[in-house]
Amino acid sequence: MTFPGGSALARDRRDRGRSPKKMPTFPDRLPLLPFTRPVRGRVTLPGSKSITNRALLLAALSPRTVTLHGALFSRDTRIMVAALRALGFAVATDEAALTITVEGRGGTIPVREARIEVGNAGTAARFLTAFVCLRPDGIYHFDGDAAMRRRPIGALLEALEAQGARASSHSFPFTLQTAGLPGGTVELDASESSQMLSALLMVAPHARSPLKVKLKGAAGSKPFVTMTENMLRQFTPAPSDYAIEGDATAASYFLALPWVTGGEIVLTNFTRELQGDAQFADVLAPLGVVRESAQDVTVFRASAARTGRGPAVNFREFSDTFLTLAAIAPLLDGPTRISGIAHTRKQETDRVAGAAAELRRLGQDVVETDDALEIRPRPLRPDMEIETYHDHRFAMSFAVLGCHDLRGDGRPWLTIKDPGCCAKTFPTFFDLLAALRAGSP
User: Fold this and answer.
1) 166 with 22: CB under 8 angstroms?
2) pLDDT: is 77 or 23 the higher one?
């Protein structure tokens, strides 16, 4: 198999030698300038992280070379690319063109022993753990950052041990000795993370005999499992080119922005085909955010009759977006109730406790239970700093709240700590927000 312009391996080596595209840099603390006029602008969403990392793995499993178009280049996807290269796969990246080309090996793992650093990338951690078990004689040393060492992986390792693998520990760091996947039925408790189920689903077609996963309890997020199943169908038969959808979770911030500032946003690549998080648009509809679609673009506009009544929403099926509603809840009338979020306590951070803490810091009355938050609006406190807990979703969600002109004079009143944590999924978020502010007439 060859890439245009030379062999896969040769191009991969040239690609590794290039200087990476310069990433935005931010101070430790970023005061947010509010919008003083209704937002007006067009946004092209970054590629979906969830789809990009699934597609990278499915491309490596493919029997042919696959080029991903519209791919996301962020901390998490770079971790996946680096891991595939460490495992011996030829991966060529072109950030300017938003393409990643992977030379598939049809289910074989080229390198017998490797060290794999997953940082705090949950998709990379779970997907790669199952992926390497396709090799019958592998030794793989996994580690992540401090937050990843607290995130669940044990249930997946137990399922893989039932297939013959041996793990030195059921949390990061661990060494995994692999024995291939003989197939049969394995039990899995995926209640803490649906990524563990998705990991097994993606490698199951390459087991020596049919591999069936029997769930103990419900999966953490069914829409992400459905995404995996749909992508498996899209990769059968193996495509040579695959288009990545715009990130529906990232869209939630721009869907909420017109409600906060007035005006309208045009999203050029918003779709509801694969991503359950697109359901967030339905949350905003009762608040008066009108959606109109035409000519492959979607317009989200704050209607003149918009309401501020706080909703009650179960986010179980699209929980990555709950922080977006939580952050703007202080601007709503009456309590906002958010439920179905217990499993988010074991994501990048404890998102339930973190949201409650930051909202209280802003002066809000918050009732926290294991699975829910009730946010009762109180006057917002100015000159406050938001702790992000190194979690990109805190930074972006509360940035939308910071776009509200609290003082009425355009002066910053909210500061985001560690804004650079957005590099995990959306490195250009704050630059894009600034461009929208500057471009709103």
Assistant:
1) no
2) 77
